[in-house]
Fold this protein.
Amino acid sequence: MKDFIKKVFLAGLGTMAVTKDKVAKIMEKLQKEGKITKEEAENLTKEIMEAGEKEYKTYKEEISSSVKKVLDSLDLVKRKEFEEVLERLDKIEQRLQKLEAKNDVVG
């Protein structure tokens, strides 16, 4: 599951990188054609990238929320709970060994 999530986020980052490159190329083209100034190109690029980053953060939060809901619905044991059960089991085994050792001495 972690690999899937990681791949989704990395794909999102890749999309952002491609988008930034494309935006820069488009702005450069518009600037060369005289349709916008260098300052306008820089401002537009900044605005577009900020909007993309905001959208990416929203996307990331939605994915995290969805994954959490799915994991919660699966009713899986959390690592902490599992480790607590292992500790309890270890203590029970130690007590059992002591009882068995007592019975071996008595019996």
In short: The chain has a mean pLDDT of 82. Residues 2-76 form one domain.
